[in-house]
Amino acid sequence: MLWALMDGSARPAGELALIAGLSASSTSGHLNRLSEGGLLAVESRGRNRYYRLSTPEIGVAIEALASASLASQPPRMRAVPVSRTAPPALRQARTCYDHMAGELAVGLFDRMKQSGWIIVDGSAVDLTADGTDAMTQLGIDLGNARRKRRQFACTCPDWSERKPHLGGALGAALLESMLTQGWIETTATSRALRVTPRGQRAIVGIAAE
């Protein structure tokens, strides 16, 4: 039920019961506990009660727990598909701390590896000469990214795709570049990112073989 509310939506108890595969009485008990614990807020709309995450920070915490759980699993378990109760908008593209996650980010990471832009050594990532040129052409200030007091580039486990996406200062710089160029946009109600028509044309060409 919490996954279904990660997109910032408010849903009635009946819909959440169907999503979770629970009886009405069991759903009511869970929703009461989640509300009393401060995880959910309740809105009254006529005769119906709608539930949503109480604050955006709850969604961040849920994703952090999912990522930590995924990182601790053995590799063979990471191939198990995530529950499809996760909202489609979040599965497609979302922010993960200060970088991009979801199908779009995982696909970009795979293409960067296949095209020889990056070298992956465990969780550490670095750019090749081709990758350095390509990132510079995308408008990324690599010198500034390397001066950050954090890891330059690393893999970050993606809870929805069960594969890594690009994290670290380079991942943050890539997201900032895409936002600046108008390829993607943030949304008002959640961490979902919207790919613009311009972005759909541009992103498909990144690291394309």
Automatic annotation (TrEMBL):
InterPro entries: ArsR-like_HTH (IPR011991), HTH_ArsR_DNA-bd_dom (IPR001845), HTH_Metal-responsive_Reg (IPR052543), WH-like_DNA-bd_sf (IPR036388), WH_DNA-bd_sf (IPR036390). Gene3D superfamilies: Winged helix-like DNA-binding domain superfamily/Winged helix DNA-binding domain. PROSITE patterns: HTH_ARSR_2 (PS50987). CDD domains: HTH_ARSR. It comes from the Bacteria. Residues 1-73 form the HTH arsR-type domain. This is HTH arsR-type domain-containing protein. It comes from Cupriavidus pampae.
